Amino acid sequence: MHYKLAFIGFGNVARSLARLLLRKQNVLKTKYDITFSVTGIATGRHGFAANPAGLDLLGCIEKVETGQSISPESRIPISDSLSVIQNSSADVMFENSPVNTATGQPAIDHVRAALEAGMHVSTANKGTVVHGYRELSALAKSKNKKFYFESTVLGGAPVFSVFRNAFPAADLLSFQGVLNSTTNIILSRMERGETFDQAVKYCQSIGIAETDPTNDVDGWDAAIKVAALVTVLMDTPFTPQQVDRKGIREITPEMIAQAKVEGRRYKLVCSAERVGSQIKARVAPELLPPSSPLYAMQDSTSGLSFCTDVLGDYSIMESEREGMTPGPEPTAYGLFADFINLVS
Ligand SMILES: NC(=O)c1ccc[n+]([C@@H]2O[C@H](COP(=O)([O-])OP(=O)(O)OC[C@H]3O[C@@H](n4cnc5c(N)ncnc54)[C@H](OP(=O)(O)O)[C@@H]3O)[C@@H](O)[C@H]2O)c1
Question: Is the pTM of this model over 0.90?
Answer without folding.
Answer: yes
